[in-house]
Write a structure and sequence with these properties.
Strand content of chain B: under 5%
Helix content of chain B: over 70%
Order of helices and strands of chain B: HHHHHH
Number of strands of chain B: 0
Distance between the termini of chain B: 9 Å
Radius of gyration of chain B: 29 Å
Strand order of the largest sheet of chain A: 1-2-3
Number of helices of chain B: 6
Oligomer: heterodimer
Structural class of chain A: mainly alpha
Structural class of chain B: mainly alpha
Amino acid sequence: MILVITDDPNTAKSWIEQVGTQLKDIPLNMVVSAQAEPLIQPYFRASPQLLSGYVAGVIHSLNYEQLREQPNLASAAWLPYNIGIIITVGTMFIGGLANGVLSLFSRHRARQIGEIK
Amino acid sequence: MNLTIGSLIDFIGLGLGFLFTILIFSYLLGDNPFFRLAIHIFIGVSAAYVALVTINNVLIPRLIIPLINGTQGERLLSLLLFIPSLFLLTKATPLRKAGNWTVAILVGIGAAAAVGGAITGTLFPQILGTINSVDPSAYAISTSRWDQAINGFIIVLGTVTTLIYFHFGARETPGQSSERLPIIENISKIGKVFLAVTFGALYAGVYLSSLAALVERLTFIWEFLNSLGFTLFSSF
């Protein structure tokens, strides 16, 4: 088995293109960051498979740790990671809402100024 | 306090990790000399590491040793590789034109390998994957056929409409600006939606990776400060 560990989507892609195509019965597996997942998933889902399996990001790592029943870094990072995601989504939601309200106000004011003129 | 050399080295490593993390985080206050110092050190260490790996794992075992201790065939082959390497070094001297042919060979081989890999590793398998996604005989038995059919339809729709989005051929009409056919224009709008979703997924992936790295660093700082507090406490 060949195991590639990388955080760079292009490195992962190069390994699949240059090495994966030459492997006959040797499985190619990867441990990648979340940013590489959308780019390597098609190779895993393709038929014939060029990528035998992969673990991507904290979510897959946590699944893998639970499968092995060996809690490690992903289990420790799970709570702060989720808090970070919730803060991000909340910031985006509040920012979008504020932007919408402000643009409504500015449009209303512009209309009022137009009526006065 | 009983400190062995191993634990002292570990402590220095952790301390340096903590220091560099703080130096990098100092960028939150704006560009500053501490941040630049950390960046310069990281780049220097990375370059030195790559150079050492190249020398130890490539140059010495694959070029120098075969040249000195190899068979006659190996020596000849090594010499054939050694001469272009010397010409490559001239790129750092005023005789830089002498190294052009070596660079040309490197670029040519690199491009050929990249194109060959992209065709056999990405293009053909993805075309096959797209075709198989709408082929009922290729469906897995374990999951619902309807699920797979809908999934296949979305894959084909996304592939075709995205490719059409990048079709810029237009009919030329005298006296008027060239425009794409209305049908192409309408289909490309669907392709634009798929592109937006793709870029959104890629951006989310990049953000999640950065968030994971941030969480790891903050956890490290927290644990390091805890361990420091524990060491100081136990030393009394």
